[in-house]
Amino acid sequence: MRLFSNIISFLFHPLLMVTYGIVLALTFTYLAIYPPTMKLLIAGGTFVSTAIIPAIFIWLMIKSGAAVDIELSDRRERVVPYLIFITSIMVCTFFLYKMMMPFWLLSMLIGACFALIFALCINFFWKISAHAIGIGGLLGGIMGVARIHMINPYWAFIVLFVIAGLVGTSRIFLKRHTPMQVYTGFCLGFMCTFVASLLSYIYLFI
Fold first, then answer.
1. Which of 63, 97, 132, 194 could form a disulfide with 185 if both were Cys (CB 3.0 to 4.6 A apart)?
2. pLDDT tens-place string over residues 148-160
3. What per-residue confidence (pLDDT) applies to 73?
């Protein structure tokens, strides 16, 4: 069970959630008409800016002794990684803007930034689950896109809710977070990206 929990935590690490969201958007929305080379450039740029670069910074923190482990178990060690991740998502947003991605997609990233800013503020006095924020944000973004395009990918919702349950259970089983820290993280991530998507929809008619 511990091995399974670690695998789930790795596969759905917060640094991977933005990339998963972009890949899903490029696969299941009208963005699927883009040529493969364009999709690879967009997904690759997203992966490098929001996963590889932040991961390198975290690794350097561990090597320098600024962090004890890759899980950043001590909440005081999470301040710099949060700032790095927020910056990386802002850079990714600018990159996608230059790639002429639609506003509703950019708004999801802006919503993710707000979720991380709120998490950073909460982190000063309470440890919140970044994994739960990530999977909650992904689910909120997908629901927002479904609302904008008037579609109902119920199978995707079912799969993501199951994954969210596995991620939350894994974090609790590994004793990385309490149930309340997981629930709060999920709600924070979900609300920020979902609300951002609704606001982007309203923006289209202003």
1. 132
2. 777 777 788 888 8
3. 65
